[in-house]
Amino acid sequence: MKKLLLACLLCFSMCINAQTEETPVVWKTSIEKINDSIYDLTFTGAILDNWYVFSQYNPEEASLPMVISIPEGETGFKLLGKARESATKKKYSAIWEVDEIIFTKKAIVTQRIEVTNREITQVKLNLFGQVCETACIQFEDTYAFSLNGSAIQKQVIEVDSKSKKLTEKLNLNLKNTALLKDSNPNDENNSLLSIFFLGFVGGLLALLTPCVFPMIPLTVSFFTKQSQSKGKGIANAILYGIFIVLTYILLSVPFHLIDGLDPNVLNTISTNIWLNIFFFAILIFFAGSFFGYYEITLPSSWGNKMDSASEVGGISGIFFMALTLAIISFSCTGPILGSLLAGSLSASGETANQLTAGMSGFGFALALPFALFALFPSWLNSLPKSGGWLNTTKVILGFLELAFAFKFLSNSDLVGHWGIFKREIFIGLWMVIFTGLALYLFAKIKFPHDAPIKKLSFSRAAFGVLVLAFVVYLIPGVMKTPTWELNLLSGFPPPQFYSIYQQESECPLGLNCYKDFEKGLAAAKEENKPILLDFTGWACVNCRKMEENVWSQNDIYTLLKEDYILISLYVDDNEKELPVAEQFDYLKANGNIKKIKTYGDKWATFQIVNFKNASQPYYVLLNSNLEILSAPIQYSDRDSYYAWLQNGLEKMKK
Fold it and tell me: What is the pTM of this model?
């Protein structure tokens, strides 16, 4: 399966290479003549600290190995076996569950060739591979060698004087760069736990749908009654649960492969206007399915094949039973999984890890009742009977899908600078949607599969009251001067400064900020203040949460307003083009060119080139001499962030 996925992804390598940023490995070449027809061609790579390059002998079921090949159209020589390599190391991969073979600091790779056409005077070899740290960057280039013993220099790619000047400005001469390696690693773990929990909640909701709930007693009874002993039945039911979790985790594997090719590619994908519109349309479509207007199902032949495979027995049979459940329940779980996928792509950071965490939580919630009821079969008697309440659950989920759909339309509006779905309009739409949900719960509106309701149950009426209370909570969000802030929704609506009402500032919370690094640096020099460099995004949920929940705290807000120069750089601003005079060709270390046309191009490249990071939010404290004052920080809690800002001020005074 992994080989197939790799093959599919490599078909898109040209597209992905277009996104690749500066490669932290520099290659030099040399040649040695063995005899009149045999030559040794050597690649020597200098690798940055903490980075590593995969060997050509890396296991097949692992990350992409280095490959040396003859470019298309080159003739007159052939490769003699695989290349010889300098000393390598082994590094265990938790994703692939194997020891991978890597080079660190320096790689020497020597490929022996045999010349079959004595008339040629030079040969070319193609070198492909990956260099990784916390994320991986793909490199691929063609190198020429003369057969008289001296290496041919790679073709020098010229850029105009304007591009050279702007490239130099983009590269900062940072000091104290060792602090970049100490940025808070626990933030991602905390974020992954949160996403695991959200996936778990999604799995619990899926359990309450008509496609899944009736399967619980049937499946548990099958294992406990059909097995040769009670212990065997319990073991099989637990194994069945494990395979359910594994099935959903496997759905995230392709995204690890994409994420591994380029650290910024998923961020670029997730903020694409048309992809967000596509997600909006998909969630609207899913909502219609939950409302009962149509059913979304996978081809019945898939379920039949998996069901037949499950009859094999043993461990493989149990695995196919789990896969069968995933397929036949897709009409109910598909919309929830689609929301989970869309939500992971809309978040910034380690997107593939977030998706795996969410899928793990979802699968764990689905699997948990099968294992628990197998251990305690008497609990089955306490389960409520299937009935109309299951359809009610689906309709409620439909309203939630509808509400989430507008988040993606809002992302497109923000990135595209349309100015249509301002904060108040977005909140107003949510008020309409949740008012509709309240009317449904009070039986004022019906959907196709709803049975007649003679009397409202207490639980349904109570839930309807809670939904109405939520609508009341939203009301201040459409006012110019809200009675209270919507902190519970931080990150979902557009930022507060994106408003139908005239705002004093287009910066978070009305703060003064600069959206250009050079202008912000000049202000820091003039006012002798430290810089808070804020790498953010229009569609970044965690960025909004930090601004509305952490920056809004009085002591932190005061520091940001009075003691720091705030520079906010939007790395996903890919629709707003730079002035023509500021557009240029960025010459990367590997000799390739990247077109810098938009503000997003500029600031995303600026972040990766200088800080070797592609996540948002990402905060850096600097002084006007470009000294890093403290280790960068990402998504954080209020106390940690305040202490971090105070530490930066103390370093500035020293």
Answer: 0.56
